[in-house]
Amino acid sequence: MAYRTIHSKGDYRTEEVAAAGTITPGMLCEMTSAGTVQAHSTEGGRAERLVAMEDALQGRAVSTNYSASEIVTLGLPVPGTEMAMLIASGESANIGDELVSAGDGTLKNASNLASASMNEQVIAIVVESFTTLSENTLKLVRVV
User: Fold this and answer.
1) How far is the C-alpha of 19 from the C-alpha of 106, rounded, in Å?
2) Predicted TM-score (pTM) of this structure
3) Mean pLDDT of 95-110
4) Domain ranges of the chain
5) Which of the four pLDDT bands, split at 50, 70 and 90, describes residue 46?
6) For residues 66 and 54, what is the distance between their CA atoms, to the nearest angstrom?
7) Strands in 10-123 per DSSP E
């Protein structure tokens, strides 16, 4: 399914922060010590739920990346909010599967971590099943 917006349903608030590098709408992000935002960088690691949103006010779509130093619109969803988030290439999951950070701004199936001890935090639950993605792809998830 092609998504036109990152937010599907539920509540969230927004923040705007400068990008430390390229950010794609639907990415899980993290703040840097410099006060900028970057793709979440720890596989399976703890994360604040910062989701890069499309910049619709500037006429940009979910397929338009933010460049370094551009102001990124971030959504901070409450638990239960459904959003289209980037799932890592090669991943498969069924409805109800747990997703964790893949360490590059995308999410991956928790069962695909190299070690169960790496799973520090589940980020979302799969709402739309998918099989072996050929590229990083937006899929509907429920943020936990």
Assistant:
1) 16
2) 0.93
3) 96
4) 11-78, 84-143
5) very high
6) 9
7) 12-18, 28-31, 37-39, 50-52, 71-77, 82-87, 98-101, 107-109
